[in-house]
Structure formats: C-alpha cells, structure tokens
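This section describes the prediction task in plain terms. A model, or a person checking by hand, is given the sequence of a single protein chain and must write out its three-dimensional structure as a string of tokens. No templates, partner chains or ligands are provided. The sample shown here is typical of the held-out split.
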Amino acid sequence: MATNSFRGSKHGRRDEANHEAEFSCSLEELRSLMELRGAESLTRIQECYGDVHGLCARLRTSPVEGLDGNSEDIDRRKQEFGPNLIPPKKPKTFVQLVWEALQDVTLIILEVAAIISLGLSFYRPPDAERQNCGSAAGGVEEEGEGETGWIEGAAILLSVVCVVLVTAFNDWSKEKQFRGLQSRIEQEQKFSVVRGGQVIQIKVSEIVVGDIAQVKYGDLLPADGILIQSNDLKIDESSLTGESDHVKKSLDKDPMLLSGTHVMEGSGKMLVTAVRCELSDWNHLHAAWC
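The expected answer:
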C-alpha cells in the first residue's frame, strides 16, 4: 500500500524530465486507461499496475491518507496533469452579436425593402420622357413627393438599426451575466477529498490528479477516477450514454467513475486520474458536461 513516503524527497524538482520520473504515469497513459470500461479496465490495471494501490504508488499518493496537501506538490500536479478547470470560451464581441442579429429573416426582408425604396426615390426618368408624361397641374405635386420619397426607405433602415442594436446589447448583457453566474457557481462548488489523513472540503477547481475523493449519494462527480472503496455504489451515467438504468460500480467488475455522472446510491472513495482540463484538451467524450 502506498504511503506518504512516496512524496517529500523530490518536492524541489520542477522541470519536465523530473516530473516524469516522479509520477511514473504520463497524461496519455491515464487518458488511455480512462477510455476502458468493465473487464477491459480491470485487465489493464492488473497488467500495468497490479491493482489500484499500485496506480496510487505510481501517482505518489496514499489510498488511505491521500495527498499531503503540500502546495508545491499540488502546483506540480497541476502543471503536469492540468487543473480541474475547463478554460472558458472566448466571449463574442459586440460586432459579432450585431452580425448575428442581422441574420433574422424579417430584418433581411426589411433591409431589402428599404434599399429598393431608397433606390426608387432617387431615380429620375430622362427629360424627354418627363415632358410627355403627366399634366402640368400634377407635375408640381409629384415633384414634391419625389424629393421626400427617400424618407420612407431611411425610416425603415433606421428601424432595422435600432432593432439590431437593442438585440445585440441584450445578448451581450445576458452573456455577461451568465458568465458571472457560472464563475460564482464554480467558485462556490466544493467536494470532499482526503488530504493528510483528514477529510476536507475543497473547491472543485482545486482537485488534482492523485487526490483521493469521497463520493456519496447526491454527488455530481467533478473528475474522472478509479474506485478504491465501494459501499453498494450506483451511478447514473445517462448524461453520457443516454441509458436511464443505474450502473453498479465495484472493485471487481467496473471501477471506472466518470465526471459529470451522478451518485444515486451508496458511497465510496476514488482515485482521481483525469481532470477537466485534460478532458478538454483531448476532446474527451464527456468533457462537455460543464
């Protein structure tokens, strides 16, 4: 069984080569492991690590006491395996929102009508044709209407501009509020992990590969992991597979736990093997749950 003796002597090392020597597991290796299910995953774990305790030893963590909580060790794990955070998408600019608002079919029809109206208002027939059309009494009246005919087209265009600007501003405002709310939720969301032999609550974004996380009924799993202890644990994986049946997780059948799934029954402990940043970088199947 792995103990805290795996950690400590190498805390001062920071370069990439020493990272590989310390953890003995690469990002690609863990990702490949988490793509397996059921008997295949058990076979891979037995062949490569002996058991899940062997994997704990490779990741320099203890299945009983967890990580020691040393800030240098946590920072090194974030650098090696990534933080448990999906980088937010670049927000749309106001110009992009204006362009999207202009794609409305009704507004496009109004724009075309306004352009046609403006074009006709500035059109003048040749002098020869003007002498032969209409009476002198009606000519003055029609000429006055021709000079103000552009107002109708300009009014339509002005209405379109107002609608587009208001729509774009509303979308920009809602997107800004949504990002603020999402950021606040992520900062407030916490999860139970074992560090230094103590069960503590930490922010989900502070979870790293190698953490021993405690899962219980009602939890939304914040990272991928491998089960190391189970008490009649059942998981709802419908967000990934579409199947409504609860999946029973056990050490001898299916120990793989996936982020974004819900704990419906029981409790247990898992070794965190993949965080959100890793899933995002590799375009993993279940990275989109956040």
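For orientation: The chain is about 45% helix and 15% strand.
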